[in-house]
Design goal:
The protein has 7 helices and 13 strands. By secondary structure, the chain is of the alpha+beta class.
């Protein structure tokens, strides 16, 4: 499968900016399931782009721009080739529950995945709030549990744009169950990590031709590390496995590691940012 992706950002400032640094984490990553085959970027201020990788190895498109200016527009286009097989895991009956429990409880597994077991400010919540149907039971295979949890969060939260911000925590979402994709993902991460199940936040794009919830902007979902399977993607916003309709950009501990835009301006002040995304299957 092939996709054409277009990302645009428009920044407007209430004052003249004399110096700025912008970092866009919007380029789809290259991995065993997808490959960027063509790309181009442009900006309204003729800034020369350069590339930078974050601590997780994902590449951003960066600009340093001298002012004065009070508007900045950025556009990125690319074509991505996706493998259409191997996304939905099938449980191996020869791999016993006892074997899985031994791996999950081993010191080596916990040490290897420590970064994705540790809670962050955005994923932390009060565990006593969570009902039994959202908690891992020792008689269940982890693959079955994460599928069940994915559905439970999908049913618990009402998709409500503009009801939360990127600073809203999993605990706040649990208390008031409404939000958008990052809120679904942060709550799922918090529940998994509280049980020492490694999980990470993923940002990317959705095939807009399938009318998935959250496809109008960059989307967020979750990857869980499952013994003998590796990292498996699930989307609690749509109650789906993250298959070939999902184009990954980056992963990290939470939204703050995967924010599509970071930057610094001098002098600082009030700004308005607008993003738009187009994803077309070709």
């Amino acid at each position: 499968m092939n996709f054409h992706i277009g990302y645009e950002a428009q920044n407007e400032y209430d004052h003249d900016v004399h110096e700025a640094f912008f970092e866009f984490l919007v380029r789809p990553c290259d991995n065993e399931n997808q490959q960027v085959t063509w790309e181009k970027s442009s900006n309204s201020n003729d800034g020369d782009p350069f590339r930078s990788k974050n601590v997780f190895g994902y590449e951003s498109i960066c600009f340093r721009i001298a002012g004065p200016f009070n508007e900045f527009a950025f556009k990125y286009d690319c074509k991505v080739q996706k493998d259409s097989e191997g996304y939905i895991p099938i449980r191996n009956e020869q791999f016993s529950l006892v074997d899985e429990q031994q791996i999950l409880n081993s010191e080596a597994f916990l040490v290897d995945h420590y970064l994705y077991i540790k809670q962050t400010r955005l994923t932390e919540y009060a565990q006593q709030w969570i009902p039994e149907n959202m908690l891992y039971q020792q008689h269940m295979y982890l693959l079955d549990y994460v599928k069940q949890l994915n559905q439970a969060i999908y049913q618990y939260i009402k998709y409500t744009p503009n009801s939360t911000t990127v600073r809203t925590t999993a605990g706040e979402v649990w208390s008031k169950p409404c939000g958008v994709c990052q809120d679904y993902s942060h709550l799922m991460l918090g529940i998994l990590r509280s049980q020492h199940i490694p999980a990470r936040y993923v940002s990317g794009y959705l095939n807009q031709g399938k009318k998935f919830v959250g496809s109008a902007q960059m989307h967020a979902w979750v990857e869980v590390s499952i013994p003998k399977y590796g990292w498996i993607g699930l989307d609690p916003t749509n109650n789906l496995w993250a298959d070939y309709h999902y184009i990954k950009v980056a992963d990290g501990q939470d939204y703050e590691d995967c924010s599509p835009l970071r930057g610094h301006i001098k002098p600082s002040g009030i700004n308005c940012t607008d993003h738009s995304v187009q994803v077309v299957e070709q």
